[in-house]
Design a protein that fits this description.
mainly alpha
Length: 109
């Protein structure tokens, strides 16, 4: 099956967009259309971001300027959001740990 350049470009950008939207779902930034809920899975988000980064590496020199710009933009945006979510999760864990310590101290009094 032969494909025109425009069709291939469209399919590539559709794949990139699909992966980026999947990563946003896993980051808890958008609702899961199947469940209707906002769900967070940072491990899956990280893996999806890694896939996009691998695509960028493997297609280097074969993308149009626009494709490269969009892919790079998606990756940068997702990486920043991933770091924010990881930091927020760590902060939540610290707060829960501090609350548990405080509860234990109050029980021992």
């Amino acid at each position: 099956m032969t494909q025109s350049g425009k069709n291939t470009e469209y399919q590539f950008m559709a794949l990139v967009s699909l992966l980026a939207n999947s990563a946003l779902q896993h980051l808890g930034k958008v609702m899961n259309p199947v469940t209707g809920k906002v769900e967070k899975n940072l491990e899956a988000a990280g893996m999806t971001i890694d896939w996009l980064t691998m695509l960028k590496t493997k297609t280097q020199g074969n993308l149009t300027q626009e494709e490269d710009r969009i892919l790079s933009s998606y990756i940068s945006n997702l990486q920043l959001n991933y770091v924010d979510e990881m930091n927020a999760e760590k902060k939540e864990q610290i707060q829960k740990s501090d609350e548990n310590k405080e509860e234990n101290q109050n029980e021992n009094k």
